Amino acid sequence: SRGGGLPSLTDTFEQVIEELLEEEQTIRQSEENKDSDMYSSRVMLSTQVPLEPPLLFLLEEYKNYLDAANMSMRVRRHSDPARRGELSVCDSISEWVTAADKKTAVDMTGQTVTVLEKVPVPKGQLKQYFYETKCNPMGYMKDGCRGIDKRYWNSQCRTTQSYVRALTMDSKK
Structure pTM? Predict the structure, then answer.
């Protein structure tokens, strides 16, 4: 707060984000609440394509930015990347996709599993959507990534894989 008055909207927003992320971490670490970790920031069940990126994904991205910068609250406000005109090293695109696009996946044990496209619920079916981020082929820089000294280093943008919690079936079930 400034001069004993009310806290600024930015301070309040940052505090809410940090509290949400701390609460999520507490739930994930809690042994008696193992079932509450059945969600992922990149997976959503819905009757229609979500219109926005997932909230937890946005919160995690913001938190990662703050952690990487390791800044105080006051410094964080004035160093927003949008204000400084920063660009990503590689161009990427993000979109919601369904299991119709990707019917199988590899689980954490290395087994191939079938990804459920639809999940029956009492009032119909929900589709399982995945928020996928990949290199933008139209934004690819033929000489490599931004910010890399091309005289000394070779670079390229590559899409990587990650694990998410999703509803799947294996050959045993």
Answer: 0.58
